[in-house]
Design goal:
By secondary structure, this protein is an alpha+beta fold. It has 4 domains: about 90 residues, Uridine Diphospho-n-acetylenolpyruvylglucosamine Reductase, domain 2 (2-Layer Sandwich), CATH 3.30.43.10; about 120 residues, Uridine Diphospho-n-acetylenolpyruvylglucosamine Reductase, domain 3 (2-Layer Sandwich); about 110 residues, Alpha-Beta Plaits (2-Layer Sandwich); about 100 residues, Alpha-Beta Plaits (2-Layer Sandwich). The chain contains 15 helices and 18 strands. The longest helix has 21 residues. It binds flavin-adenine dinucleotide. Flavin-adenine dinucleotide binds next to strand 3, helix 5, strand 10 and helix 12.
């Protein structure tokens, strides 16, 4: 059961905000208290829906005065339980703050409210031949504030980099309810420590992002979408080496295994892309100048035995069909079973040895279990999903995977990788943070949190305990 909010707090909200500002409705508490992780039971005390930065600031001031914990909440597509409210917190949903400002065609920027849906920003800017190049399967639900708070990655990182690179300015409400305007729309601003960067990737623990000035890129030219079959992980990486030397600008280099494909086909009722099955597949998107050059390159891949099968989409609808195979994986795994998800990154050069050592760990820990691997492999990012065996209880499964994660993170650490490539830490990976951050770093992070949020009201218990 969620803790009740202080009477005086509820009275102040009723007096100072619109009637539809706060809900205590059980079905809404259930919905807004969870994210995509589905591991924790939601138990918020209330959900607030501000429309303006002023409302956010006044609410946070009240929360600060009454020591009410706040969970900032975007599209709740997060995969690390960062937006989960499981301990009676107040959920502050940004969903009504979804205004999109005019596109600045001289500066190539747009200022939006934090609750703007990622894909809505894409549509808004596409009319002007521009895009905000933060792109992944959940873009139809995720919000700009959530993307920034998680410093989201995605399928286009190989070309454009992370969300961090595409945020010029931030408006943030602090734990004390002060409004900060950080960096405006400036590309260059060398006036000391860039405070904006503190909030990017902070998962709602240091401040609430209410508006952002986004940097835009020109929409890319004609994109070719390829799907290749390769025999193994070594084949995925050899093809990557070739693709980097090809007459193309790579904008995505993704991989998945046959087990992922099988779940996608089952869930989405799709046909197999090739006649003969393969154990590994690569989905590649690239911009090229000369179609003839691309065809010659493609032919040479077969001649040199670098791929066992392959196809180049001949139309936008074929391209979408190929992308659907990759982008439906997360959704299909959750729809057809209970995945235990991990999202690690390694130096690309370490991927092959990491994967073979991982096989040995999994062989010992999960004999006969189904393991699904996919990810943004061109960035060294591997999504590792262990599926719950049908005949195992959920609690037993979670205990087992938690123990096995330590063995896997030892390996990640040995290869100087990261235990969270792009999903963040939230509640889910908090116990493992020391595999990727030194004790000195953790202490510095705690000092920062204590200085910025001394009462620990902003997303308490997420990322690290103070
Ligand atoms: C099918 C699927 C595919 C995905 N693919 C990718 C991928 O390729 N790459 C990737 O990086 N992620 C991916 N994700 C994860 C997720 O979509 C991203 O992390 C996304 O950026 C989260 O945005 P959101 O608005 O849903 O945030 P939420 O889940 O609502 O919140 C995420 C975190 O940000 C905080 N937060 C939210 N809004 C604010 C705000 N305004 N101010 C301060 N803090 C805030 C929350 O408290 C929480 O800690 C995927 C998820 C799904 C379901």
């Amino acid at each position: 059961m969620a803790d009740a909010l202080p009477e005086a707090f509820l009275r102040a909200v009723a007096e100072g905000f619109p009637a539809d500002f706060l809900t205590l409705e059980p079905s809404e508490l259930e919905e807004y208290g969870r994210d995509w992780t589905r591991v924790y039971s939601p138990a918020p005390s209330a959900v607030a829906f501000p429309r303006t930065t002023d409302e956010v600031a006044r609410l946070v001031k009240l929360c600060h005065a009454h020591r009410v914990s706040v969970v900032p909440s975007g599209g709740r597509t997060g995969l690390a339980a960062g937006a989960v409210a499981a301990r009676g917190e107040l959920v502050l949903s940004l969903q009504r703050m979804n205004k999109l400002g005019p596109v600045d065609l001289l500066g190539n920027t747009v200022r939006v409210q934090a609750g703007a849906v990622t894909e809505a920003v894409h549509h808004h800017c596409a009319e002007h031949g521009l895009t905000w190049p933060v792109d992944f399967a959940s873009k139809g639900s995720s919000q700009v504030g959530g993307n920034i708070a998680t410093n989201a990655g995605g399928v286009k990182v190989i070309r454009y980099g992370l969300t961090r690179q595409w945020v010029l300015g931030l408006q943030v409400v602090t734990a004390q309810g002060e409004v900060l305007e950080l960096n405006g729309a400036l590309e260059k601003n060398n006036t000391g420590v860039d405070l904006r960067q503190l909030f990017i990737g902070s998962e709602g623990t240091l401040g609430i992002i209410t508006e952002a000035t986004l940097k835009l890129a020109p929409l890319p030219g004609r994109q070719d979408v390829f799907l290749f079959a390769v025999p193994d992980m070594a084949g995925v990486l050899s093809l990557f080496r070739e693709a980097r030397r090809a007459p193309l600008i790579l904008s995505a280099y993704e991989f998945f295994t046959d087990k992922c494909l099988e779940r996608v086909r089952r869930h989405r009722k799709l046909r197999s892309p090739f006649d003969a099955p393969s154990s590994h597949y690569v989905l590649m998107e690239a911009e090229s100048k000369e179609a003839s050059e691309v065809e010659a390159w493609l032919g040479s891949l077969f001649e040199r035995g670098l791929v066992t099968d392959g196809t180049l989409a001949q139309s936008p609808s074929q391209a979408s069909e190929l992308w659907a195979l990759r982008e439906s994986i997360s959704e299909s795994l959750s729809a057809t079973g209970l995945p235990h998800k991990n999202d690690v990154s390694l130096p690309v050069a370490a991927l092959e040895s990491f994967c073979s050592e991982l096989e040995a760990v999994f062989g010992a820990r999960y004999p006969g279990w189904e393991i699904n691997l996919f990810g943004h492999i061109g960035d060294g990012n591997l999504h590792i999903n262990v599926m719950k065996p049908e005949d195992m209880e959920k609690a037993e499964f979670l205990a087992h995977t938690k123990a096995a994660d330590h063995a896997m993170f030892e390996l990640v650490s040995k290869h100087r990788g990261s235990i969270s490539a792009e999903h963040g830490i939230g509640l889910l990976k908090k116990d493992y943070l020391s595999y990727s951050r030194s004790l000195a770093e953790l202490e510095l992070l705690r000092t920062l949190k204590r200085a910025m949020d001394p009462l620990n009201i902003l997303n308490p218990g997420k990322v690290l305990d103070v």
